[in-house]
Amino acid sequence: MKPFYHFSDEENNQLTHFLSQNAVNPYTHYQEFKLTINELCQSRKVPGFFIDICNSIKHERHHGISDVHVLRNCPRDINVPALDPDNPLEDKYKKKKTFIGEALLETFALLTGTPLLAYGSRHNGDFFTDVVAIRKYSGQLTGFSDSELVYHNDRTAHAVRADFVTLLGLHCPDEELIFTGYIDGKSLIKHLSEEQQTALRQPWYRTEFDVYSRETNSRQISSPDHAILKNHHSIRYLDTLTHVAPGAPEQAKDALIAFMQAMTKADKQRHRIIQGDLLVFANQDGLHNREKIDIQNKENAARRWLLKTYAFRDQKTAEQYQAYWAKGMFGLVED
């Protein structure tokens, strides 16, 4: 995938200087961290080129030009620690002393008008999470494994789902070829008849929670019955874990088979995230996966570390979920 913008080294330095003005730890004092970034942005210290980039991305989204973008040579934390694969989260808390990546993702969310989302049962409610392999989930179907991932939306079975997912490459071994694939919902529905689309818009389907979700929250077993298609081309689907609900008519199964075939036929985009890449895509208006194309060293590949955020489409969309806020904290979903 061709980068939407490639920062020059000078632009990287300017933006790094801006982001370095934050000294607040977002994992211990997120509200203070968010306020600091907001104040820095309001003080007009943000480099103008970054504002222009974010406005251009907003323009492309609004006009349906593209819902997936890559920024290359982004600021990031240079001294990234190696994490303990048995408990990378607690190890990160101990070892990670700089927060350039987190400040970049918070600023990006602010300038694109996409408020961040977090889940109380995941990563202690952190707004910045890690796509990193946890040893106990090796080979299992979860983003926290060293395995490939089927096409899906993040948090498919959950009632509150992000509109956008952003990934920043912190540590991406050069020797290992791991790609993120993306199918735009507009491309997928081109391969479905009107009758099939109508069936897929009925609440005839059910999605199981993945193994990590079930272990971190025992109440998360399966979604209520839901449609796979919504709006014009929004999708709610997790391959191998989205099934026809009990009692659904025969046409529900036929439509699901047609949907799976459409996934195979649809145009796909693929991107290999390298260190300093920021990849952002529409979570509900498409499907994404992880493909291991060529792995030279399995243990080396398992050390890949992406910093991740979930975001709502806009402030109005976020406010629709106020009933879910934990302790009244905006964006933190009680689950």
From TrEMBL:
One of its GO terms (molecular function) is 2-oxoglutarate-dependent dioxygenase activity. It holds the Pfam family TauD. Keywords: Oxidoreductase. Residues 121-310 form the TauD/TfdA-like domain. This is TauD/TfdA-like domain-containing protein. It comes from Musicola paradisiaca (strain Ech703) (Dickeya paradisiaca).
